[in-house]
Amino acid sequence: MSGTETRDHEPTVVVHPDGDVLAAAAAARLISTLADVQARTGSASVVLTGGGTGIAVLDQVRRSPARDAVDWSNLDVYWGDERFVPADDDERNEKQARAALLDHVAVDEARVHPMPASDGEFGDDPDAAAAGYAAVLAADARAAGGATGAAQVPAFDVLLLGVGGEGHTASIFPSSPAAEESRAAVVAVRDCPKPPPTRLSLTFPALRAAEQVWLLTAGESKADAVALALGGADEISLPAAGAQGRSRTVWLLDRAAASRAIRR
Ligand SMILES: O=C1O[C@H](COP(=O)(O)O)[C@@H](O)[C@H](O)[C@H]1O
């Protein structure tokens, strides 16, 4: 972890038999965590991720008979990263999340906060779009009574992340400027090794404002990144290692992704 921030908790690692069980179990965990937070505080917030496992979890939430344990109208929805493409592009994390879940539950659209698209109000300017999203987060943080941690962002209740095979998380890629960002909450990311090349991403200070960070990943292609992150790799060369929540960090894995980190 960079700077002076330290976290006094070890990550929890939960290993499921395969990707389908992982998605169903993470969905159940998400429903019950958001319902608990709402029972305690009246409201909750979640930061969504794209990627295969992240969208599979939302699909499982939609299919769950318990999904309406969450009061969807009392939920703030944000994104941890976005592909900077037109709003209607199938690559967009927002579009995939809406199809998997958000179009099927009674969310309050005023509380759904997608990152800007490349044909949106900031046009094809990812730096302006990143600044625009940072302003949304800062305004919500002020409305909630103040920012949390180093970034001007709300204290997200649950923040979901995927993990790339090379160790990226959100759209913070290894040894990229985004991995070094210590002030801005949101950055434009260019020349990504994984297409599409231009993206928007929360930074480490913003990710770390979340109460709980859950890293979700499945498959053998993620095994090296998981082993390195859990083995103490530095966050610049392996960004997934730097994603930690204020009170909890939970790695939700299938056996294949966990295979080099944990021997059972
Ligand atoms: O491009 C992205 O990839 C990561 C990981 O996706 P996966 O399909 O390998 O699980 C995801 O977390 C991120 O949100 C997304 O933009």
UniProtKB/TrEMBL annotation:
This is 6-phosphogluconolactonase. GO terms for molecular function: 6-phosphogluconolactonase activity. Keywords: Hydrolase. It holds the Pfam family Glucosamine_iso. It comes from Saccharomonospora piscinae. Pathway: Carbohydrate degradation; pentose phosphate pathway; D-ribulose 5-phosphate from D-glucose 6-phosphate (oxidative stage): step 2/3. NCBIfam families: pgl. Its EC number is 3.1.1.31. CDD domains: 6PGL. One of its GO terms (biological process) is carbohydrate metabolic process. The lineage of its organism: Bacteria, Bacillati, Actinomycetota, Actinomycetes, Pseudonocardiales. Hydrolysis of 6-phosphogluconolactone to 6-phosphogluconate. Residues 18-251 form the Glucosamine/galactosamine-6-phosphate isomerase domain. Belongs to the glucosamine/galactosamine-6-phosphate isomerase family. 6-phosphogluconolactonase subfamily. The keyword Magnesium does not apply. It catalyses: 6-phospho-D-glucono-1,5-lactone + H2O = 6-phospho-D-gluconate + H(+).
